[in-house]
Write a structure and sequence with these properties.
Number of strands: 27
Helix content: 25-40%
CATH class of the largest domain: Alpha Beta
Largest sheet: 8 strands, antiparallel
Strand content: 15-25%
Length: 574
Amino acid sequence: MLNKIILLYFTFLVGFLNFSNAQVNTAKFTINLNVPAEQMPKDGRLLIMISDNKNVEPRFEIRDDVKTQLVYGIDIENLTSSKIEVSSADLYGYPIESFGNIPKGKYFVQVLFHKYETFKRKDGHIVKLPMERGEGQQWNLAPGNIYSTPVEIDIQKDGNYNLTISNVIPPIEQPVDSKYIKHIKIQSKLLTEFWGRPMYLGAHILLPEGFETHPEAKYPLAIFHGHFPSDFGGFRTVPPDPNLQPEYSERFHLDGYNKIVQEEEYRFYKMWTGDNFPRVLAIEIQHANQYYDDSYAVNSENLGPYGDAITYELIPYIEKQFRGIGEGWARFVYGGSTGGWEALAVQVKYPEQYNGSYAACPDPIDFRAFTQTNIYEDHNAYYKEGTFRQTLVPGHRNYLGAVDATLKDMNLRELALGTKSRSGQQWDIWEAVFSPVGADGYPQRIWDKKSGVINKEVAEYWKENFDMRHIMERDWDDLGPKLKGKLNIYCGDMDNYYLNNAVYLTEDFLEKTTNPYYGGDVDYGDRAEHCWNGAHDLPNAISRLRYHEMFITKWANEIENRVPKGADLKSWRY
């Protein structure tokens, strides 16, 4: 009897303590929106950021590794007031999920409202998403988003906090045409129809030397895929600025890296205009969208027909405007990371529209190694599971293998930034591109964002539509003759995101089982990190700045045996 009394008392005590904590851990936020009427939001994600660093705005301090500061988010819909009142109990946070678990103390606090717009899509779904506004889908830089000036606050678990939003992020200044670089923007009929409102594609075009003095010449098209480019990158017509203040590169551990970048840009200009460089049109595409800074250049249930829009609308327009040859044999694609995946994917999905793919450090091209997760066999993306314990799956490492973020960390950060795959970050865009549409109009989750449990039905959809190794193996009888000599893949064997694992599996297929033999190249950089691109004699810090030089010359030197009879291989080499 005594044991039962003790047990009941203990149960009551635990319940009382939990209740008390629940009361203590509830803070109240009142957000006053002091912005012009035309800037008042209706729908979006309210983000409250908390930092112990007074030197940098908290909105620029949310990251995957241990240097991250805190962010708490909540969806706001149908806002009709200039005042928002939220309870900390309704906020979801990263890396400390519950606001009540923040250590008491003084912090710098900043609030940002990431605006969503309503889209009535062709498929009948009505969704609320952030429209890209010229910045490349960056929540902390998006024009029109409103935010507060950081203020120092003494954080208590049961405090009441009044904050005022009075700043509006201004529009992005658009680049200006020059002798060599032109900028175009077209309305896409295909994307406009899908999204139910005008949608655009853009591009920056680097004209070859002699473009104006050789009006009869027509040129091949070099298509560089990658993240949203604000202008054509890596090209500078004047020497480096001698008064440039050196900046330290955290990624490459180099002081004055900004000066190195300018030196490389000027070096490329001298090569581009020199006597021996192939005369081609080089382009970088702008296809940021409602989910990310880049569409992945394929057709998607959630993003729409970006693959067709780029291949059949944008590229022919550029070729017509700037005297491109306009045939599949005279186009090739190259890029790294996201651009590496795109370079391989568009070559596979449009095998006769492109005549060469140079894919450096591609995003996962075999989903048996979706970084460190096998989405077909693993039960959980966040843990390697055994009978008696679990081990967290690493997400990011350095070249010596030291891990500074787990896959779970990366995904929970995204969940704080946005629900329904709306964070604008890496894992959510993979989901948006690769997944089928859910009943609510948003991408179906490949795994539960909190628990990591994998949805096998969604995984099967991914496999049949976007697993590049599987698609090539499944369809090689048809694809093989069309892809011969066109596939080239490069990756560091210590890629920070473990992207080399999928390349190993793809190489096994290409090298050991293709018939006809694929006839391309797969190569690895020893201890090379993201994003190694095949330059064995250069460090990543330099080789990443030489994509155009490396792959334009490589393509021009190797295409003789895969062009149609009578193809013009000489007039553009003046």
